[in-house]
Specification:
The protein is α/β, with parallel strands linked by helices. It is built from 5 helices and 5 strands, in the order βαβαβαβαβα.
C-alpha cells in the first residue's frame, strides 16, 4: 500500500515541527514544509503531495487564495485548512473554498486529517 503524502504549509516553525511529529506518528508521510503561500505553491508543484495541510493566516497570500490556486492545478491535492482560530471565524469562506475541510490547530492529529480526506475522496 502506498503511503499518503502530505505537505505542511504554515508560517510558524514550531507548529510545523509539531504537525510533522503528530502526522508521522499517525502514519502519514510528510514530504515537505513551506513557510508561506508562495513557497507552499512551489512545494506543492515540486512534491505533488496527496494532501496539503494549509494555514489560513499566511503572511503573503491567505490560505483561501492558495487553496484556490492549488485546486486549479492539473493534479490538485486534497486541501485541509487549519487555523489557531475556530472554524466559526471563517465559516462561509471555508464552505465555499475548494478545501476538503477545516481543523483547528489545537485539534490536529492524523486521524482528523484522514477523516476529512476520506470523506472528500468518497
Amino acid at each position: 500500500m502506498t503511503a499518503i503524502t502530505i505537505l505542511v504549509v504554515d508560517d510558524h516553525g514550531g507548529f510545523r515541527a509539531t504537525a510533522r511529529r503528530l502526522l508521522e506518528r499517525d502514519g502519514w508521510t510528510v514530504v515537505g514544509e513551506a513557510i508561506d503561500g508562495q513557497s507552499g505553491l512551489a512545494a506543492a508543484a515540486d512534491l505533488m503531495p496527496d494532501v496539503v495541510l494549509l494555514d489560513i493566516g499566511l503572511p503573503d497570500v491567505d490560505g483561501f487564495e492558495v487553496a484556490e490556486r492549488l485546486a486549479a492545478g492539473r493534479r490538485a491535492p486534497s486541501i485541509v485548512l487549519i487555523s489557531s482560530r475556530e472554524q466559526e471565524a471563517y465559516r462561509e469562506r471555508v464552505l465555499v473554498s475548494p478545501a476538503a475541510g477545516f481543523i483547528a490547530k489545537d485539534r490536529l492529529d492524523g486521524a482528523a486529517v484522514r477523516a476529512i480526506v476520506e470523506v472528500a475522496r468518497s
